[in-house]
Amino acid sequence: MTGRQGRTTYDVIIVGMGPAGASAAAALSRGGLAVLGLDKDTHPRYKVCGGGLSARIEQLLEPGFRSVVEQTIKGVQFVHRGRDPLLIESSEAIAYMVMRDRFDHYLVQQAIHAGTDIRTGDSVEGITQDSTGVEVLTGQRRFRAHVVIGADGANSLVARQLFPNRSQYRAPALESEVQIGEGRHFPGSTTILVDVGAARQGYGWIFPKRECLSVGVGEFRRKATNLRATFERFVKEERGLSGWEVPRPVGHPIPAYSEAERNQRSEGCSTFVNGRAALIGDAGHLVDPLFGEGIYYAVRSGQMVARAILADKQVCAESLLAYEAALEREILPDFRVTGRIASVVYAFPRLAFKLLRRYQEVVQAYFRVLQGHTTAAQFLPDAKQRLKASVNDLLLEALQMR
């Protein structure tokens, strides 16, 4: 807990001090605003998470974030149901692996140093808004501000209370962390494993950290039957995990951006801004629908909402509309592209694996998206041109296999 303990009125209140909330808090505080950050947990706090940051995070964070990087990733080993490994590498980093307790704590410290008041271990119980501001009630105090930012994750209280008609779509995932000791890695210290056939409509992953492996499966559909059996099968089929004890997995939702969000927006329903409230990161379902990457978009959306608020000296509801417009320009077009790719990859995993093997240069081109050299929207036209002829042939082949 930091800051001026007697103060109850702020310019901005942020609920949730994960990567999205901490990034927004730091930027707003540096801009001279009075910011309160609330979190039900005390940092640093352990959280089971893949912890993958695409390399484009370098465009958002100061170089100091490297102090909490566990591994630098330059390659992906693709497999299908644990077989036929295909390693595709890049000459430069495509991702960084972090432990969430260290990474999140680093960002919270950045916010504190910028001047944010932080209150942890105090759960938010209610949020209301009126024409003059917002009121946030915690278990211990009552606070008021001009605007509130929901950065409180996939099960966001801010979203439930101030966005009652919002889609509640969340993809289920199970994840465990296997302690292997320093100096031992699989599939390698600079390589992650992605199994495109491990789940029925999703994938399995193994991400190397300094002393452990993050092992998980995710299903990118509304209802996944017996995901635990899927996880156990993935662990059993992956020979690289043989001999290591895999602890019981922890379930967590992946709030991937979906067609439900797009449909709501087309019907005139705001999914990110409602009056004096805005949703960022996982609370706003700002998670890539192809690989479930959320941390990069958490940091980015946090900085985007801060930029919109700081551009309007009034710190009012209208300033949040600029944030929503920025999402529409800068992030949502890519989500629509990766969503289309995901719908094909996860519906036909064996076909997708064949395409990966045949068109490795397309994967190399997508690495450039992860590195921040281009966008998914710019990547798609060239990829479609390369794949068009073969997709028709392979679809026919896939149908003949059934």
TrEMBL record:
Task: Name the domain of life this protein comes from.
Answer: Bacteria
Which residues does the UniProt record annotate as the domain FAD-binding?
Answer: 10-310
Q: Name one Pfam family in it.
A: FAD_binding_3
Mind telling me which Gene3D superfamilies this protein's record contains? FAD/NAD(P)-binding domain (3.50.50.60)
Q: Which InterPro entries match?
A: FAD-bd, FAD/NAD-bd_sf, Geranylgeranyl_Rdtase_fam, Geranylgeranyl_reductase
The cross-references to SUPFAM superfamilies, in alphabetical order and at most eight, read: FAD/NAD(P)-binding domain
Name of the molecule in the record: Geranylgeranyl reductase family protein
**Organism of provenance:** Nitrospira defluvii
